[in-house]
Design goal:
very-long-chain enoyl-CoA reductase; EC 1.3.1.93; 6 strands; four-stranded mixed β-sheet; Ubiquitin-like (UB roll); two-stranded antiparallel sheet; lipid biosynthesis; Ubiquitin-like_dom; alpha+beta
Length: 306
Amino acid sequence: MELDIVKASQADSKTFVNLRDVDRSATIGQIKQMICKQKPALYPERIALRTEVKGKSLSDSMQLSKLELNKGKELYFKDLGPQVGWSTVFLAEYAGPLFCYMITYWRPAIFYGPDAASKPYHYAVNIAAACWVFHYVKRILETLFVHRFSHATMPMANLFKNCSYYWGFAFFVGYYVNHPLYTPASFKDPQIYAGLLGFLFSELGNFSIHVALRNLRPPGTTERKIPRPTSNPFTLLFNFVSCPNYTYEIAAWMSFSLMTQALPALLFTLAGGGQMVLWALGKHRNYRKEFPNYPRGRKSIIPFVI
């Protein structure tokens, strides 16, 4: 069959790429490879193909024979722009905050004055630094050894946006928590240690969910299954919400905010929590759309609420 590839932004203009002798059993991934042969400046991860101008991008595994193509057998092309691997993105996102926070922990004179580093640290400051380092080292190790990504790449522009968010907040939180004039929690030890226990509990829960999600997806595939509790008690939260990893993540930063009693830490928690709620709502909708037998009683991120 003959297939015309038309730019979605110029749907009424001439054909962008014309493909001849295309087998109807060909997949979208194979079509992308054919396009790249005619347009060497492109690569498959940069290409999105749709059956409608503003439709949903087709998965690489989709076969042409299963599509209802428009008149003249057209697919609409969108250039996603320069791409970068997800692992690279996450490593940059998580390594940056680690170093940014520790720079403020060392109290450089340029930020705090020449004598700041010699002033004593409240033990809560040291605990907060240890928790911060633990969290981001955990995230880096999960990126390297746990996560299996459904998409190989993301737009390069997102790398700068995400890094600005994580790195900027790391400096913001670190500057105030590590300041020589930092005032510890109002209720002293009970508040500090309650926050620490909540943080560690939530981090362990978050890790448990990531492992459970990893085991749902066979290596090298993008297969999706309904997540369910495993023998690990931390995964029981799957009975109530679709994205317990976000639930535990928000709980961890709420605990960190309680422990440090620092407004920047709370703002970081609220900003991140708001974004995670949006992500969870989207994933919850996708689960319900994809799986007719998806548990009806589950919420997206907060049990019984949302």
